[in-house]
Design goal:
Blueprint lengths: L8 H5 L1 H28 L7 H25 L9 H27 L3 H8 L1 H13 L7 H17 L13 H24 L5 H22 L9 H27 L2 H5 L4 H13 L7 H23 L1
Helix pairs in contact: 2-10, 2-12, 3-4, 3-9, 3-10, 4-8, 4-9, 5-8, 6-8, 7-12, 7-13, 9-10, 12-13
């Protein structure tokens, strides 16, 4: 049986398949950190220009949605035939998972350090595990799963230590608070998407939610006076890469959530900041073999092992 972009369902549900596909998604999302920073330079977007940042994000996700829907259409899926209720559900998913989450995240990021934002954003794993505990009988929170989440969270903290990565205990609603709200919105929306995928093809669902969310972000950016520099070959290529990674990663992630417990898949999110920091270090010419990268990777892998082992044993 196949369900999705040519991926056999048994593979998606196997331990090896989950590990390989979820890790690949997190690697792609981690690569978006340095790619977005380069995009800001290529498109002339300032650090405080939130409207332009949202416009850039809007173009990225709208293009990602269009790519995914085009692919779905070429594989014989009916992308325009959905009952009225499902259109409303997909629109709500696009509003929350892409548009609202991204607005909260970027406003928060503008008022908090990158270090603390990375750590606060990792709270999304805890939200996913706790929400799933109350919604799904086969996805209960256990002591081993809780320890696994704690180990993964410590990995995110460790990867941000050292150098200028000091931590403090300041907490502002419009800064760190907004990043936590973004993490909660994303966790809740992802679980909502899992429920929708029971009746809607995950590729079609993901394509429409990215497209709708992208258009909402584009409109918000334009309304706020956002402006991007004229596209060049490097900037257009970078935007296309970001759109492709979003379309692929979100589609595969939706498939993984459809066929596996939320807690099992959510634990892999701890890999995103680890990959993001490591890839940023590579592009900045720093050594990848830094103690905090290796320690963080070990902690995150240990946490994922504990969570996946619990999920497989029930």
């Amino acid at each position: 049986m196949r369900y999705g972009p040519g991926v056999p369902t048994p593979f998606i549900q196997s331990r090896t398949g989950v590990f390989l596909l979820a890790t690949l998604c997190c690697l792609l999302w981690g690569s978006a950190y340095p790619a977005i920073k380069n995009g800001y330079v290529l498109f002339g977007i300032g650090k405080a220009d939130t409207a332009a940042q949202l416009l850039f994000a809007g173009y990225r996700f709208a293009l990602a949605g269009a790519i995914l829907l085009a692919f779905a259409a070429t594989t014989g899926r009916r992308i325009l035939v959905l009952p009225g209720r499902q259109w409303r559900q997909v629109a709500l998913l696009g509003l929350t998972q892409t548009a609202v989450q991204y607005v909260f995240f970027y406003v928060g990021l503008a008022h908090a350090s990158g270090v603390k934002s990375s750590i606060m954003n990792a709270t999304g794993v805890f939200f996913s595990v706790v929400i799933a505990h109350f919604l799904y009988a086969d996805d209960r929170l256990s002591s081993r799963k809780a320890l696994g989440c704690l180990a993964g969270f410590l990995g995110v903290v460790v990867v941000n230590l050292g150098g200028k990565g000091h931590l403090d205990f300041d907490f502002r609603l419009i800064g760190e608070g907004f990043v936590v709200i973004a993490a909660f919105v994303l966790a809740a929306a992802s679980i909502y998407g899992k429920r929708l995928s029971r009746d809607i093809d995950p590729l079609v669902m993901t394509g429409w939610q990215l497209g709708i969310g992208g258009l909402l972000l584009t409109g918000t950016g334009l309304a706020g006076g956002g402006h991007l520099a004229t596209a060049s070959l490097p900037s257009a290529s970078l935007l296309l890469y970001l759109a492709l990674l979003s379309s692929f990663a979100f589609a595969v992630w939706s498939l993984l959530l459809k066929h596996n417990p939320v807690g099992l898949i959510a634990a892999f999110n701890f890999l995103i900041p680890v990959f993001g920091v490591a890839l940023s270090a590579i592009f900045l010419g720093e050594s990848l073999l830094h103690w905090r990268y290796l320690a963080a990777l070990l902690l995150v892998c240990a946490g994922i092992w504990m969570v996946t082992r619990t999920s497989k044993k029930g």
